[in-house]
Amino acid sequence: MPEARDVPTSARVALAHAAVQRLADEAGADVLHIKGPAVAPGLRPWASGGSDVDVIVRPEHLDRLMTTLDRHGWRTETTFEAGSAFDHAANLFHPSWGLLDVHRLYPGMERDPSGAFAVLWEDRGRADIAHVPCVVPDPLAQSLVLLLHAARTPTGGEHPDVPANWTLRTDAEREALRVLAARTGATVGLAAATGDLAAHAGTPDAALWEVFTGGGDRLDEWRARWRTARGPRAKASVAVRSLGVNRYYLAQRLGHEPSRGEVAREALGRFAHLGRALGRRVAGAVRR
Amino acid sequence: MSVLRVHPDAAWLEDDDVVYAAPLPDGPPVVLDGPGAVVWRAVVPGGSLEDVVARVAAEVGASAEVVAADVATFVDQLVAGGLVAHE
User: Fold this and answer.
1) What is the CATH number of the domain that holds A83?
2) Element (H, E) at A116
3) Contact B30 A2 (CB under 8 A)
4) CB neighbours (10 Å) of residue B59?
5) In a mutagenesis test of the A interface, which of B5, B13, B17 is the best target, namely the one with the most A β-carbons within 10 Å?
6) Nearest one of B30, B35, B1 to B13, comparing CA atoms
7) Number of CB atoms found within 10 A of residue B54's CB
């Protein structure tokens, strides 16, 4: 029987969702499958099945899930701290299944990840993926997840997820989405997705979304992350990581495992990049 | 008489007459096309080996005697691969 190399990505991703659900069951971890084949029909008519698996895990169950994934051969490629501006997801790889993003919180719902997960879990549903029942958010919550994702994915215009999940929804559904966003702490993120971010201008929550929707540079992102981080410890972590090098992404770009020298050059490059962004700001201020 | 079924710890889907199946939770996925996909589809409703052979024979337009040995061999491979279970 031919093996994994012949399996197209869409099929592999569907099978991987099933595998991850089985491991979550084994670990006793609550997970919600999002994106790709987990999305309800009609919410993402333009998209294919995706290239990786995305799940949100109940924060209290994170350790047991990660332990079980590790025991079954999933290798952590990118840690939560190295992954993104929101520190939200770890990226794992398995030779049979490919890539998996484990979200310990969903960007836009980061104020109270446990509370937000509990709200999403209340109205959960099931989707049969590769003939295995996988736990998914209800369709309205799926729309909120897709809209929050759209808000941090610049497209140069309206993101293709916005019409089906917002514009074409009824007034009652949009109001229900606003209520759900309020319950999950995602009011500002939803506003960013739907073009209403100006109503929240000047708030710390709005700062990071303004970078994504306004196409800010690396310095903007760093400053926004600084403003959004809660407390001195979190702020120190932001400061360190803003200059850190993600070895996984560097390896992807180079096509091989980076040497110590390549990591160091990359770190210097990032420092220089931040310095140039700062320099442009200073020059702009002098000109003004 | 034992009944053959898709293994409860298997995931699978079909696309364009090709079946992609995998034992959970570790894989690896396998591709079943052509006769392999025909046998898989014959297993999905469940039944004895004779039932499966009869379904395959009907599907390919041959007698049960002609396909029986090949079907039995392939079903054994599916069982060994954790994709099909005897009940």
Assistant:
1) 3.30.460.40
2) helix A113-122
3) yes
4) 15
5) B13
6) B30
7) 17
Q: What's the CA gap between A96 and A16, in Å, rounded?
A: 8
Counted domains in chain B = 1
**Distance between CA atoms of A74 and A97, rounded to whole angstroms?**
9
The H-assigned helical ranges of chain B are 35-43, 49-60, 64-80
Q: Beta strands A89-94 and B10-15: pairing type?
A: unpaired
Domain total in chain A: 1
Residue pLDDT tens, chain A, 288 long: 655 458 999 999 999 999 999 999 999 999 999 999 999 999 988 776 688 999 999 999 999 999 999 999 999 988 777 666 566 889 999 999 999 999 998 888 978 999 999 999 999 999 999 999 999 999 999 999 999 999 988 777 788 999 999 999 999 999 999 999 999 999 999 999 999 888 988 887 788 788 777 656 555 665 666 566 656 555 555 554 544 555 555 666 676 667 767 766 766 565 555 455 545 544 554 444
| Closest in B6, B20, B25 to A11, CB measured | B20
For residue A27, what is the nearest residue in chain B, using CA coordinates?
B25
Q: Name the amino acid, one letter, at A200.
A: H
In what order do the strands lie in the sheet containing B10-15?
B10-15, B18-23, B30-32
Q: Which residue in A has a C-alpha nearest to residue B23's C-alpha?
A: A19
Distance between CA A72 and CA B23 in Å, rounded? 13
DSSP string, A70-105: HHTT-EEEE-HHHH-TT--EEEEEETTTEEEEEESS
Contact flag A15-B20 (C-beta cutoff 8 Å): yes
The residue in chain B having the minimum alpha-carbon distance to the alpha carbon of residue A132 is B11
Place of tokens 């981080």: A229
Q: What's the whole-model pTM score?
A: 0.81
Domain hosting residue A24, numbered range: 4-242
Which CATH number does the domain housing residue B36 bear? Answer: 1.10.10
| Spatial separation of the C-alpha atoms in residues A209 and A72, rounded to whole Å | 37
Residues 6+ apart with CB under 8 A from A93: A74, A75, A77, A99, A100
Residue A267 included in any domain: no
